Amino acid sequence: MIQEFSGKTVLVSGAARGQGAAHALRFAEAGASVVVSDLRDDLGEGVVEQIRMKGGQAVYQHLDVRDGGDWDTAVARAESVFGGLDILINNAGVVACEPVDTCTDDTWNNVMQTNAAGVFQGMRAAVPAMRRRGGGAIVNTASMMGLVGSWGYAAYIASKFAVVGLTKSAALTYAADNIRVNAVAPGCVDTPMLDEEKKIMATNPYWDFDEWVANQPISTIAQPEEVSELVLFLASGRARYCTGGVYPIDGGSTAG
User: Fold this and answer.
1) Which of 156, 174, 241, 247 is catalytic?
2) Average pLDDT in the 209-221 region?
3) Quick one: fold of 9-243?
4) Alpha carbon of 40 to those of 69, 205, 227: distances in Å?
5) In the chain, what are the domain boundaries?
């Protein structure tokens, strides 16, 4: 296998399971040194062990993406252990489905602090380190719900629209530093978060999950590894002319 990311260091948030774990494993396969970060320490250490068993390089770093100090520590760990930071994958997120009139302050604040402020904090911590490396690539995880509206999901949709805006602003701001910033906008992906969301949907009179999937242009669920391939492309030199883009990977759900 081509070691496309040999000599590169990547920091992946929310990497203990689901899409984040898939991204971390795939980057390691492609030769990157990986900082696996999450709140779920045991699961995160397990991802590191998987990478090392396959001959890759990785360390685990506890990270609450809502905490700027945690971000500074994670970036410093990447620099101290692997010599620098080249790639940031802002993947951590939470989901909630509550309309505006019933969304509590706690729900709103947690979703916005995790999904939107977490991306902001991550980029703020990573940019100086990438400048020290002469450039880098950032891939933020938005959502198809950062491109269209939906019943309920008030905080979640607001947070993902914020990720899209942050991505575009950062792309314009840091292009002169040779730092590219893009976002992926996944739809229905087979992860533990989807299992949580299906439970939420079951209580929502406006959503029928199976019917929704069946009505997509590509009427199936994506696997996390499929999202990883897009993420790796955007982080790679093959995407050198891509910045400020938001790339749906949603079975065509937002095409019409």
Assistant:
1) 156
2) 81
3) Rossmann fold (3.40.50)
4) 18, 32, 21
5) 9-243
